[in-house]
C-alpha cells in the first residue's frame, strides 16, 4: 500500500497539496504545529486511498511529504520503496 509521511513541523499550511491530490485525501487540521501554522492531515486517517503519485511532495515548497510507493517484487509480494520527489 502506498503512503505518505507528513512532517508536520515543516508544514506552513499553504494547502497547495490539497489542490493537486487526485484522491482528495488531504485537509487542514484544526490544531497548529509549534510555529503556529495549521498543519495538513489525511482525511479520516485513511491512508488506504493514497496512490503514491507524489504530487503533494512535488508541489510542496517546504518538503513536508515523504512518499512511499508500492512496488511489486517478482514473488508478487508488495514492498514499499521511498520515493524522493
Automatic annotation (TrEMBL):
Residues 2-31, 38-70 form the 4Fe-4S ferredoxin-type domain. It holds the Pfam family Fer4_10. The keyword Metal-binding applies. Transmembrane segments: none annotated. InterPro entries: 4Fe4S_Fe-S-bd (IPR017896), 4Fe4S_Fe_S_CS (IPR017900). Keywords: Iron, Iron-sulfur, Metal-binding. SUPFAM superfamilies: 4Fe-4S ferredoxins (SSF54862). It comes from the Bacteria. One of its GO terms (molecular function) is iron-sulfur cluster binding. Gene3D superfamilies: 3.30.70.20. The keyword Iron-sulfur applies. This is 4Fe-4S ferredoxin iron-sulfur binding domain protein.
